[in-house]
Write a structure and sequence with these properties.
The complex is a heterodimer of chains A (about 240) and B (about 260).
Chain A (H helix, E strand, L loop, with lengths): L1 H17 L7 E6 L3 H14 L5 E6 L1 H9 L6 E3 L3 H10 L7 E13 L19 E4 L4 H13 L7 E3 L2 H9 L5 E5 L9 E4 L6 E8 L4 H11 L1 H9 L6
Parallel strand pairs in A: 1-2, 1-3, 5-6, 5-7
Antiparallel strand pairs in A: 3-9, 4-7, 4-8, 4-9
Helix pairs in contact in A: 2-8, 3-4
Chain B lengths: L9 H24 L5 H5 L2 H34 L5 H13 L2 H12 L6 H8 L7 H25 L4 H8 L4 H12 L1 H17 L2 H6 L10 H9 L3 H27 L3
The chains are: A alpha/beta (about 240), B mainly alpha (about 260).
Chain lengths: ~240, ~260
């Protein structure tokens, strides 16, 4: 009796979870670094289109590409690098091409006040400092490699993190003296300062309309519109 | 005396089979993904060797530390009455509930270079835990310690204490009584505590990546190597997962055969 009640309860709970998402929502898969900006875009879009529902699926670009290749139902895909986008487009048919909708640059992130007095990329060769970057397959790691290569610096890294947020936390806590992060990661909120790298490595963010429903078409148009671009600008993103 | 063979309840058999299948299916799925042709080259790669070495060293050290402090914690919780005991027990078990990444971040803010304890430690000795193997050991110990405490405390509660009383009445000190009388009696629980603690430490990911960082040959454990490889080289990630499964099965089966049955 007791066991039967538990089993029935579990089955009902599982069934309930399965049915909770509204069928007509537009699913937007968005890279982690774009998350906060897209939450604002979502709010603004839903205010202008009260009959539409946008659902954000936020994760790392590589993970999102994996998901869509594995058949995840996604209407719009916005990623942090072209390589992940190319991989996704290689195995999924989309209604339109990928369009670059925003850009970002790489900076040397340092703890507030720059206690180790890091002034340039050449400080990344100093073995007494605690230095970090993202791991290579992650977009921010690929960009960091480009930054080091462009400057001709062989970095003495103490960690290669799986995502940029892990770097920001360790900069904020003062455990890392410097790390290569996105310009958008440097803010009062994150508690880290930025030092210019002196080299020009631009991160480009592509977006693609996968399903071409009226709502997904309108949402991509909104991201590219003056209003959408101004919201992205508020979060530190540059024009495409 | 001849043991009477009992027929288990049908419902239990069905539920048990479903439960085992639930665990077995993903493992079998993993086997289907293994790129058998590349197995040799991946297994002998430097990344796998480094990660396996760090994982084994850190998880075994963590198990030793968890034994050294976890057994006394369990003893005090089971045998000593004091105010605020419920709070202390909850505190010790907290890492079970805390998301490991949160635990790792908490470690960073307390034992990091500018942390509450880590700051003065660094100023006095120059010792830095993050980005070192010691940071990995600290992170996996934090997460796996509760398993040792829970196993030992539960066994101590269920123990017939007359043997301890007898030893004490013959003049044995409390420590000697514990080592010579109590420990042998709770050996099965201790072994399962060792297995659980080690297994949790060996598979730890979140606290390690948050506190110790990720650098091949220094702090990159198997779970971290698998995670990074998932984003670049699926085959390598699957092979490393297979290595973890094999090592874990060997250790857990060996533990059981060596001591469990005999005890």
């Amino acid at each position: 009796m007791g066991i039967r009640a538990i089993v029935v309860g579990v089955v009902l709970a599982v069934a309930g979870v399965g049915c909770s998402a509204p069928d007509d929502a537009t699913v937007v898969s968005v890279a982690a670094s774009l998350g906060p900006a897209f939450e604002e875009l979502q709010k603004a879009y839903e205010r202008a289109n009260p009959e539409s529902t946008i659902e954000l699926n936020i994760a790392g670009s590589v993970t999102l590409a994996e998901q869509i290749i594995a058949g995840a139902p996604v209407d719009v895909l916005a990623l942090a690098d072209m390589a992940s986008m190319d991989r996704a487009l290689g195995s999924v048919d989309t209604t339109g091409p990928a369009i670059t909708f925003a850009s970002n640059s790489m900076v040397i992130g340092v703890p507030r006040g720059n206690p180790a007095a890091v002034t340039s990329l050449s400080d990344f060769a100093r073995s007494e400092l605690f230095l970090g970057a993202c791991a290579i397959p992650v977009p921010c790691g690929v960009y960091a490699r480009q930054v080091f290569d462009a400057a001709g610096v062989v970095p003495d890294l103490d960690t290669q993190e799986a995502d940029v947020r892990a770097l920001v936390v360790k900069l904020d806590s003062g455990d890392l003296d410097a790390a290569i992060v996105y310009a958008t990661d440097v803010s009062a909120l994150s508690g880290i300062d930025g030092v210019a790298t002196g080299v020009d490595v631009i991160a480009e963010y592509p977006i693609v309309d996968v399903t071409g429903t009226p709502d997904s078409v309108r949402f991509v148009e909104f991201v590219l519109s003056a209003e959408g671009q101004s919201i992205l600008g508020d979060f530190g993103f540059g024009a495409p | 005396m001849r043991r009477v063979r009992q027929r288990p309840p049908m419902l239990f058999v069905v539920l048990a089979i479903l439960g085992v299948a639930f665990v077995a299916v993903p493992v079998v799925g993993l086997l289907f993904e293994v790129p058998w042709g590349d197995l040799g080259s991946i297994l002998t790669s430097e990344i796998v060797g480094d990660a396996l070495r760090i994982s084994l060293v850190a998880s075994l050290l963590a198990t030793a530390i968890a034994t050294l402090v976890g057994v006394p914690i369990a003893y005090v919780l089971a045998r000593v009455e004091f105010r605020g005991k419920a709070l202390v027990r909850a505190l010790v078990l907290l890492p079970l509930v805390l998301p490991p990444v949160v635990g790792g971040a908490a470690l960073l803010f307390s034992l990091g270079r500018r942390g509450l304890v880590g700051g003065p430690l660094y100023d006095a000795t120059g010792l830095v835990l993050p980005f070192s193997i010691w940071g990995v050991v600290v992170a996996v110990t934090f997460v796996s310690l509760p398993f040792m405490v829970l196993s030992i405390e539960g066994a101590l509660h269920g123990l017939d204490r007359r043997f301890e009383s007898a030893a004490a009445s013959l003049g044995a000190t409390q420590l000697r009584t514990f080592m010579r009388v109590t420990m042998p009696m709770i050996m099965p629980a201790f072994i399962s505590g060792l297995a659980l603690t080690w297994a949790r430490a060996f598979g730890e990911f979140g606290a390690t990546v948050a506190f110790a960082g990720n650098l091949q040959g220094r702090t990159q454990t198997m779970p971290l190597a698998v995670f990074v490889a998932l984003e670049s080289d699926r085959g390598a990630a699957v092979v490393m997962s297979l290595v973890m499964v094999v090592v874990a099965v060997i250790v857990l089966v060996a533990l059981r055969d060596r001591w469990w049955v005999r005890a």
